[in-house]
């Protein structure tokens, strides 16, 4: 899974007109973390840290893609799978889904960068509770602490306008409507604001602004005298 994921991220880094990404699992599980059969063979500290470096690099690149990403969590996201959800910009949870940082039960802490990202998403107090307590985060708790950005309804409920994936596509559609260069610029500006010290973020923002100012979308908007009602 880890190598496959890195290869997909490399492909996505070359997707020049991408605007949005939905990451979902298979069957009833979003991701159950490391392959326990495989990690038993690399249970020494050196190999563990190599795996950690590989996955931290992969997931950091995933989060830094110039597009808006959503983790569609169906079933369980456990351990590294929970960390994987934090490597997307947003998380949508199905009604019976659970995000659980089970690391403590494995005698571990997050190793794929999920600890650092979790603090930035839910704050240090909630991160400490989720990691220290290996708490099961259901959609209600996820929305309450800001780990979940929305819930997708089950097909048999009246509110469900389609499958989980169709609902996620509709949810994401609101944020990626528009020309790819503009959506990509939006993500780049937010990324720099999220990761850089203010003075550097301002420089990055100015640079990104320069790529869209006077661009096709900007000139078209100016020509149309659009009103934002
Ligand atoms: C940095 C964190 C990272 C690390 O330390 O390297 C980790 O992520 S540690 C791993 C954390 N994940 C787990 O501990 C998950 C363990 N699995 C489960 O809790 C359950 O399997 C499940 C995911 C909740 C699913 O339960 P259920 O629906 O009851 O199905 P099964 O338990 O029968 O599983 C089906 C099948 O899948 C195999 N499986 C599940 N998870 C893993 C895994 N992480 N690695 C390897 N194999 C996994 C499970 O063994 C079953 O296989 P078969 O017995 O061959 O059918």
Characteristics:
single chain, 229 residues, alpha/beta, 4-stranded parallel beta sheet, 11 helices, 8 strands, 13% strand, globular, binds ligand LP2KCY5N, methyl/ethyl malonyl-CoA decarboxylase activity
Sequence-ordered SSE layout with sheet pairings:
Blueprint: H1 2-13, E1 20-24, E2 29-31, H2 36-39, H3 45-63, E3 68-73, E4 76-78, H4 80-85, E5 90-94, E6 98-100, H5 114-122, H6 124-132, E7 136-137, H7 139-145, E8 150-152, H8 164-176, H9 180-195, H10 198-212, H11 216-224
Parallel strand pairs: 1-3, 2-4, 3-5, 4-6, 5-8
Antiparallel strand pairs: 6-7
Helix pairs in contact: 1-3, 5-6, 9-10
Would you kindly provide a written description of the structure presented here, covering whatever features stand out?
With 229 residues, the chain is of the alpha/beta class. Helices cover 52% and strands 13% of the residues. It is built from eleven helices and eight strands. The strands form two sheets. Strands 1-3-5-8 form a four-stranded parallel β-sheet, sandwiched between helices. α1 (2-13) runs parallel beside α3 and α9 (180-195) packs antiparallel against α10. It is globular. The mean pLDDT is 95. The chain binds ligand LP2KCY5N. Residues 29, 32-37, 39, 76, 78-80, 102-103, 106, 108, 110-112 line the site of ligand LP2KCY5N.
